[in-house]
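Duplicate of earlier report; TBC1 domain family member 9 input re-posted below.
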Amino acid sequence: MWIQPKELLLPSAFWIAEMHSRYFVLQKRRGHGESRGFGSMLVGTYDSVMNTKPAPYRILHQTPSSEVSYEIAIGITQDEIVRDWEWLQSNLFKVLDEMENEDEVTNFTICKIQSLYTQNNQDDTGESADFKVMTSQFRQIFKMPEEERLVNSYSATYVKNKIPRQGQLYISLNHVCYYSYMLGQEIKRIIRFAELEDISRNANTIYLKTTNNMTYNFTMLFNASEAHLLIEQLNKMAIQQLIHDPDSPVVDHDPSNFARLGNKTSKKPVLLRDLTARQKSEEFRIYFRLPQSEIIDGKIKANIWTPYSKRFNSGFIYLSPNFLCFRSDVKDLVSVVIPMKTIKSVEKKDDGQQRFENQIVIITSENVPFMFAHIVDRDVLISKITDLLARIHVPVSRERAKYDISWSKQTALMNTFKTQFSAEIVQKQEEKMLRWEAHFRDFGRGIGMFRTTDVINLIVEGIPDKLRQEIWLIFSGAIHDKEMNPGLYEDLVEKAACIKNCFSHDEIDRDLPRSLPEHPAFQSTDGIGALRRVLQAYALRNPQVGYCQAMNIVSSVFLLFCDEENAFWMLASLCENLLPDYYKDKVVGAQIDQGVLNELVETHLADLHGHLEQLGVIKMISISWFLTIFMSVISYESSLHILDCFFYEGAKIIFMISLQIIEWNREKLLQCQDDGEAMLVLQNYLEGIYNPEYQVPPATDKRKMERKIQTQTVQTLIHEAYTKFGEEITQQRIEELRNKHRRLTMRQFDIDNEKTIVKAYVQNPYFSRNELHKLLTIIREEKHALKSLQQQQQKAQCPLSEMPQLVPQSPSRAIHEAGASGDRHEAYSVNYEVFHTLFTELTPWRKCVSVDIGEKLFRLTDKRGTGSLDFGQLINALGLVCSTKSMEKLKLLFVLHLPPLLSKAEIERSRRPRPRTKDDAEEAFEAEDFFDNDASESMEALPSPSDHNFDADDFALISATQHLHNLAGISGNTFMDLSRTPNLSLNSNTSSLAQRSSTFYVDMPALQGTATSTDAGRDEDGPQRGLRQQGRYESIDTFSDISDLGAARMTPPGAGVGTGADVAAGAQAAAAADHMLLNVETISNFSQISDLVAATRQERADSTATDSRSLGSLGYLLDQPDEGASCSQHSIPHMRKENFQLLWRSIIEIMGLVQDEEMQRAYENLLELGNSNIKKEPSLESFTQLNLGGSGDEQPDSNGNPTTPAAEPIGTTRLFVALEEELRQASGNGRTTTTSSGNSSSSSTNTSESWHISISQFIATVLTVNSIVRGFQTPIQISEQIEQLQKKRRKCLSVNY
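Output:
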């Protein structure tokens, strides 16, 4: 890139010349792109220690007779710098050669480069060339995506193993990164802001602690304070992002929101300036109670004339798009808020040689003058105010849609339901009113009043009922939101009234009778109706909050003194500004402030803190106190007084009152022995607090007669709280503590979730309690990393490879998962990407590269076909692979190499030459695995692998059986009763096969005890009803064959019972079969049915059924690992030769690519066993003969089946003839897929496909190989593997997504 020409006096030995010309030289930084020699190490170390970090390439301009050179271009890559060199070669070389004067050459070159620099940076971000180089190096070193924006970098020292290492601390929007290069040794560290648990600074050292108890210390000579504040701010943004949107954890920043009218020239990076403006804007809004959209544009030093004291007070003028504000240098001395829309004129005022110079006078629409003097730059201020006034937009009420709802706004309920106070109370109210009117005369009224300590004193004394609405609206800031959104409340009310079956509305209606029931206003339809409209409107305005208990209590108080619309905006200001995140899920804001209160008690009441912490009292009291601002624990008339102070002071008053109450009860609390006793002490004290200046008559206060002994006046409580804690507890202190406890609270949520889940799975046979905790931690970290990556790629419109998507989940499942328990477990479920990463990083089977074992295991474990595994499934999958159970692991490995887990496409791909490059390999994998036309190989089409009753319940099987039944005309007595079962996937029409489409159903947790419904087949809606009753999950796609049709049980008349033994393997005798089975061999040709008939709960009767799509009986390997020995009770298909060869290759890879003589002999024995299993008798072209039983004298085969075919019933023979003819017509000319064998040849397709081995033969043979048994019995310490994975992430090693 072209840069502003920089003069260089001395040549540097750190650069190597790559290209020369008469006036230019292209140089490369020594050590860049070279093998790390001693010189390169010295240069790298120098750059790291001295914080130079130049671009690796540059172009210099130098005349032959001059010792001065000019740097005119830099480049991050060689291609980039070569493009600039080629431009010089094409445009300047010939021109400069024609010039005779070297000074002329230099002047012309510099002017030309400056022109290029200006031209290329017209639409740039405003960043300097050095910062662009720094950003490129940051992304290159830490492999960050383009969307991860660098904020700034600082020179820092990191101590590792007691050795200080100088390097660079990079701070981006989502990460703190550190890089150091010292004499050939690199150190990289990556820390996500969301995982920081503690941030502190001592002098020039910043201390960071993460959630996995890793600590980091970074020492900086310069800018340590700036770096610390920046880390605090970005951590706060990261945690808030997790609170508001856990599914999008990446912090984003829109720089356009912080653009200023007059951009100041600054050397700081643009994003750093924006974040600084963001922080200052937040402080600006909190202090002056302004809307969230206000962004500070700047501040300027000035004095303001205060007419009540007749003097000038120094301070600062703050400007934002809609407000001009002033704040004095002396705390709380005076402040002013002037809305821009009320400014009528801005004029200069010159008093000659008087001491008050540079004056301006601002006159508002109410003809109130505000005079400012000693303005540092008066012309700039007037210009800015003029620009802002030109841009001001005054919203007007828009025409809104009319709804068929009749209602009217309710005025303040105190006007309708008047309380009859005593004459003494009325007189006190009038006296307060007179004091407030006198204050308005001196200090002004409305938004633009002078806010001084006098108004604080008046509020502490109490606000008259007539003024509460006005004062509350002004000091809460709700008036600004109302004026900026005219007509919005009416829209929300009428739209909310049209919403039916809303959960929030049901919750609101349930809590309405409990909202201030002691007041007669909420025993009437007017009060209840207004409260309902306010709460429903806000639930519609802020769906993230919706409705939370306690909102009804505070809203009812608002409605007593404010009209309906004002009460709504008061509630909005309370939930969004004054008490942020209080009313969200888990009341996280209140729990954060609970931690703040706990630390304040430790600071100010140290002797009491330990005792309260032991009793756990603070956790019990603070939520109820905070959410209702003491309204639920203190009498209504007393809590009003606290509410008056709350709208002026904010959350500060809540902490002050809480500390004062705890301090007054110090002695009694120290004597308490349990939490119940302590709570009773505080409850009795709070119920005794009263307000002598606002006594409600007993007739209108049901609690009056039940109230206990009076303990203290609310006026004394507030006064004492201000006196003891008012100076020490500031808004800045509260925000600092909130930042700290926001981290700790979110971490505590994770810890509580982990404890609950570990308790549920602590009895698992694989992992200890500590290992479960570590596994949950790494799941949370990996899911967060994946979500961040996906979010950033979505912004770049470059999403990850798509996983197959299922039809939306059933309502019953959605309702179940909406609960708290469902959410807790859902947080630790893993999708395919996370599971594959954990499998690759944590298990010993990661060595297997010929077959993607992780993908096969995920598909086998995903019982419901939802594309995710819960924590229990993950434990079983990873636990078995990492365990010492060699036999179960061998069985699992055998199953993972069976179809459909190991497809023919993958077998063929494994035989083809591999792509030469890694990118080609990844591209080929994604293209074939995620976009294959054979959708039956996808995860949705795979049946449940662990439901033991799957074969008996499979809908696709029943449909196919019914289809065969229709073709053959066989009565329901021969096959299972099909009249109750709807046809879901096939019908008798041949065109259904020609469409090459089918519907597959994957088992969900059954809602009924039975598999079918008697009424299901009698309705048109039978199929859907059957699905709902069984909780099945539907996946619809286009298939190249109809394969996963399960098995049907059949009991023909006179069927015999056969038994047999596996002679070749020497296995024990198999269990006797209860029924004879209808057996059909799988043919993989287009539109042919495979594995139509197989065993449901017993070992397969046909030894050649090697392509089973129904793996329903294999789940015992994962669900019941301890019962795996009872293999005879489960149906495991036999394996073909091509699958077996890949299985053996996987074993060799797992063993470390070492095959000894014993393994070679076992391999040859298994090949021979497979050859001995080949059937010699002829078979049909498409199906094996029907084996219904032979004579009693003949011996069965290895699986207990008769060796000769029995006589077939006429109807059965006609069945297969008709079905075969239909399939042949549907598919046209049938294709025959020939499977090639690695070490043997076959003369026919049937013979080749007949080679198979059973799992008994495989296990019996492999267990004789000592090296394999030792390798599979070696335990894997999952804790060590997790620590290694976390270490890799911290050291910025590649991520396997």
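The chain has six domains: 2-124, 130-252, 261-391, 413-446+453-578, 585-629+650-742, 904-1256.

Merging into the original ticket.
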